[in-house]
Amino acid sequence: MVRPARSGRTGLAVLAILLWFTPLPALDGNDYSTLANAPADDAALLDIVFADDTTAAEMQELLDDIGGEIVAGPSKLGRYSVRVAGDQPNGELLAALAVDPRVRFAGPTLTEVQP
Predict the structure, then answer these.
(1) Residues 6 or more apart from 70 whose CB is under 8 A from it?
(2) Cβ-contact 82, 71 below 8 angstroms
(3) pLDDT tens, position by position, for the chain (115 residues)?
(4) Where does the chain show beta strands of DSSP type E?
(5) What CATH class does 43-108 carry?
(6) Would you call 91 exposed, middle or buried from its count of C-beta atoms within 10 A (0-12, 13-18, 19+)?
(7) Is the pTM of this model over 0.85?
(8) How far apart are CA 62 and CA 48, in angstroms?
(9) What is the residue extent of each domain of the chain?
(10) Which of 93, 94, 84 minimizes the C-alpha distance to 43?
(11) Distance between CA atoms of 42 and 56, rounded to whole angstroms?
């Protein structure tokens, strides 16, 4: 007759005890958020199409310069939605992007950004 191994039962019992006494993190309803939640701060969205020869490092450098972050894209046409600080993108920012050799197009976002 084959007897079950006691070490397996003992290990299972130890695991059950450890799980029973492991504290769970406190869940507060105010902490819940998803990636689709709107940011708390005021921000404007721009549509930016980068030039074909713009590298990823150059894109990141431009985003750092304008205080922006990509929130959607690229689309099939290469359009990125970029969040920048402030309610509305000011004319100076758009004018600077218009002459930047890394950018083919920049303007205010006219469509909803899908998460």
Answers:
(1) 63, 80, 81, 82
(2) yes
(3) 556 556 667 877 877 787 777 776 665 556 555 555 555 456 788 999 999 999 999 999 999 999 899 999 898 989 999 998 775 567 888 899 999 999 999 998 877 655 5
(4) 43-50, 68-72, 79-85, 103-108
(5) alpha beta
(6) exposed
(7) no
(8) 11
(9) 43-108
(10) 84
(11) 27
